[in-house]
Amino acid sequence: MVEYYEEKWIIPQRYCKLRDWIDKDKLNWKMLSLNPNAITMLEKNWKDASLTLSSIVTQGLSKKDRPEIDWEILSFNPNAINLLKERIKYEKWIYVFLPMIKNKVNWYNLSANLNAIEILEKNLDKINWDMLSMNPNAIELLKQNYDKINWIRLSLNPNPNAIEILEKNLDKINWKMLSGNWNAIKILEKNMDKIDSYNLSLNPNAILLLKNNPDKIEWIYLSRNPNAINLLEKNPNKRDLYFLLENPSAIYLLDKNKNKISCKDKIYWHIISRNPAIFTYDYEKIKKEREQLNKELIEYIYHPLRVFY
Hints:
This is Periplasmic copper-binding protein NosD beta helix domain-containing protein. By secondary structure, the chain is an all-alpha fold. The chain has helices at 29-32, 39-48, 53-59, 71-74, 81-94, 107-110, 117-121, 129-132, 139-144, 151-154, 160-167, 175-178, 185-189, 197-202, 207-212, 219-222, 229-234, 241-244, 251-256, 258-262, 265-272, 283-301, 304-307, and strands spanning 16-18, 279-281.
């Protein structure tokens, strides 16, 4: 499913830091590669490994010394484009010396990355059209290659133009996938008998539809829905902690239950690692930068050459 992230959850990397109660050492780096707010942390981890040609070829690197970025998974991450571009160049160069290199950028996953269109347009032969069909920013490429559209995946595509195409081809829709498409609510309302309740419960724009049709609520899946937080608050016995771990809107509920997370080490930390809300603004850094900016501004405005000119 195409990930749904509101702008309020995406933090400028310059001011991004882990919440105080998040234990960095318990985070799962593989799942962290999916986290749109983890780019600076991942990038630092990669560069700190100082991979040079000589260290790889002549000295070799043990598994623990290699960067822990999972490039296959990172290929999905929309905020990792600059890192992925750098990695693609690196892979082309290193392939000459190590043709069997593993842990590479995955073009199958990259084809679904909504910010990877520029890369994909330059590498048409590497596109996976099935995955591209659910990419909301690939609609022009799909229109130009209509015969390559995968209708199951297109049913997931939230782009308004994709919705328009689906409305004209109702017989080709995969209703299970469409039930999770947050821009397909009008189509779903007209076809209630075809809705998949599991994916509908995940759909962030289906809250009203679910409230009006409570028989279609699947509470386990609803626990992952970022717009269902009011329903989840009112029904604490029905929400599922495992799915709640991925819900950015539930971060304060997770904070209250951090003891439950800690006692389940690997399983729970594995899941929460992909939640963008484990990061927050570094307000101390913002404050210091503003103070410095104010200082420089005052010095400029009240400089003697300006005051007495």
